[in-house]
Amino acid sequence: MTTQTTREKKPRNGIFSDQQNPHPDLLSVVRHHRAHPWRKPCPEHTLAAFDVLQNTLREQPRSLVLDSFCGTGMSTALLAHHYPDSWVVGIDQSAHRLAKHQKAPCNNYLLLRAEAESFWGCLAEANIQLRAHWMLYPNPWPKASQLKRRVHGHGAFPLLAKLGGSLELRTNWDIFAAEFAQAAGEIGLWGACEAFTPKPALSLFEKKYQERGHTLWRFRGEFSR
Fold first, then answer.
1. Smallest Cα–Cα separation from 33: which of 130, 203, 153?
2. Less packed terminus of the chain by CB within 10 Å, N or C?
3. What CA–CA distance (Å, rounded) separates 78 from 111?
4. End-to-end CA, the chain
5. What is the pLDDT along the chain (225 residues), one digit of tens a residue?
6. At what angle do helices 44-59 and 116-125 cross, to 10 degrees?
7. Domains and CATH numbers, the chain
């Protein structure tokens, strides 16, 4: 596969992009971020959310599963059923989306309003390890010029290596999945991406994409120790 970018005339799964292949600058961007650690000050609301998590872990110590970019928290509640002996914590920047959550009967999950990248930094600084990390359909930022806004092109991406555990990313854009897999290897996250059919859908986005007949992709990996 070449790394040349070109203007795409037809959308892939509804995504218009001027890329038809992984971005040619991807690996150099990830390596730059590894060499120059991300140091953005943590927002107050994210610090407050992290305090809630720390208090929860002190009162009821359990392994931790993180659901980044959780939206309405539908996925967080469903994941809580999959990890009954863990705390499953959903984080999202939008109070509006979180307010739409429909409470599930299980009592082992939390929804917190937080900036994901800064929250990862708080976890890393506190040496808190994850059992598993889920990223379901983050904003793909499809323009080639937006590479550094994507999860794997962001300055905070190397922080994930400090959190350990397994990681699953899902997307409806094959290029995004391929880029994530390439970037993951640069931070010691080893796995593979594949097309898949969710049974059942874990989020409202996943449900919508599945109903529209989109091909869905996932990356599943584990951090090397």
1. 153
2. C
3. 13
4. 30
5. 334 444 555 778 889 999 999 999 999 999 999 999 999 999 999 999 999 999 999 999 999 999 999 999 999 999 999 999 999 999 999 999 999 999 999 999 999 999 999 999 999 999 999 999 999 999 999 999 999 999 999 999 999 999 999 999 999 999 999 999 999 999 999 999 999 999 999 999 999 999 999 999 999 999 976
6. 50
7. 43-223 (3.40.50.150)
